[in-house]
Amino acid sequence: MIHYKELGLVNSKELFQNAVKGGYAIPAFNFNNLEQMQAIISACVETKSPVILQVSKGARKYANQTLLQYLAKGAVEYAKELGCAIPIVLHLDHGDSLETVKSCIESGFSSVMFDGSHFPYEENVRLTKEVVEYAHKYDVTVEGELGVLAGIEDDVVAEHSSYTRPEEVEDFVKRTGVDSLAISIGTSHGAFKFKVQPGELPPPLKFDILEECEKRIPGFPIVLHGASSVPQDIVADINKYGGKMEGTAGVSEDQLRRAAGSAVCKINIDSDGRLAMTAAIRKVFIEKPGEFDPRNYLGPARDKLKELYKHKIINVLGSANRV
Ligand code: G3H
Ligand code: 13P
Ligand code: ZN
Questions:
Q1: What's the predicted TM-score (pTM) here?
Q2: pLDDT in tens, 128-187
Q3: For ligand 2, is residue 115 a contact (CB within 6 Å)?
Q4: What fold is seen in the domain 4-317?
Q5: What is the residue with the minimal CA distance to atom 1 of ligand 2?
Q6: CB 102: neighbour CB atoms within 10 A?
Q7: Cα 45 to ligand 3 centre (Å)
Q8: Closest Cα to residue 274, out of 32, 83, 58, 111?
Q9: Domains of the chain: which residue ranges?
């Protein structure tokens, strides 16, 4: 067992308190490899933003738990080397069992999500409470979820969303003891969130549900999953360089900016980063068909990713200069 404090990580408690008070959201960026980690840390150091490094079940399988642990420790040192010791949380994204949670906590995670949103309400309460009781013994913070998002997360595809029922949030938070709550207000996982015609806007978020939730749990940290915006310039580049992604749109950045000003204090972005890397790699392959050194396509992908993250931090989440 290695405790997260030994790796120089923090849990999310204080970060969320500050974010709710300050009217901004902490970026929660997923990572699976070195280049993504480098892009996240350098973007956050340059903008002086706290950060949540998220690891999905798929990422654990892809990257190996031991390597992830050392990458996270490396991230703490790397940030210092770049000139700013930003607070870094290592978070399990969409945890699906107490076993997974235990194994993550044992290898240095400082925060975990238990996603019981697909279970009936009472089952979600019971399982989430079990996770909280275990995690809190190690001072690890826990995110729960109420309501189901549409889209793809890990291997699960949900055709339809069901919005969070505000009348449940107070009871859920009280009975489980979670430290933050993910809610469903119209965001959705993946790069194919909304089908739109050219020039058509994606549907707005359900701010009425968010406000109802806030009324019932004032000041309590709220989380938005599925918050990628599927930037149209990046999609256009992907298509220009031989890709095929048509008629797709994400959550508008204006809507996210508005949400970040409320009790929403953690915003999850993964798909936009995937799109940015894909666009950059495709460009190299089309423009330089003889290229075969991974550093010469992963390098540009990393640069594009860093630029995207800085934009999110400065212009969408408002977490710049909060360290
Ligand atoms: O919510 C899901 C995240 O985007 C992680 O996706 O399971 O493909 O790593 P993944
Ligand atoms: P996106 O697919 O919108 O990037 O959402 C990521 C997410 O919610 C990770 O938990
Ligand atoms: Zn998610």
A1: 0.97
A2: 999 999 999 999 999 999 999 977 665 555 566 799 999 999 999 999 999 999 999 999
A3: no
A4: TIM Barrel (3.20.20)
A5: 226
A6: 17
A7: 24
A8: 32
A9: 4-317
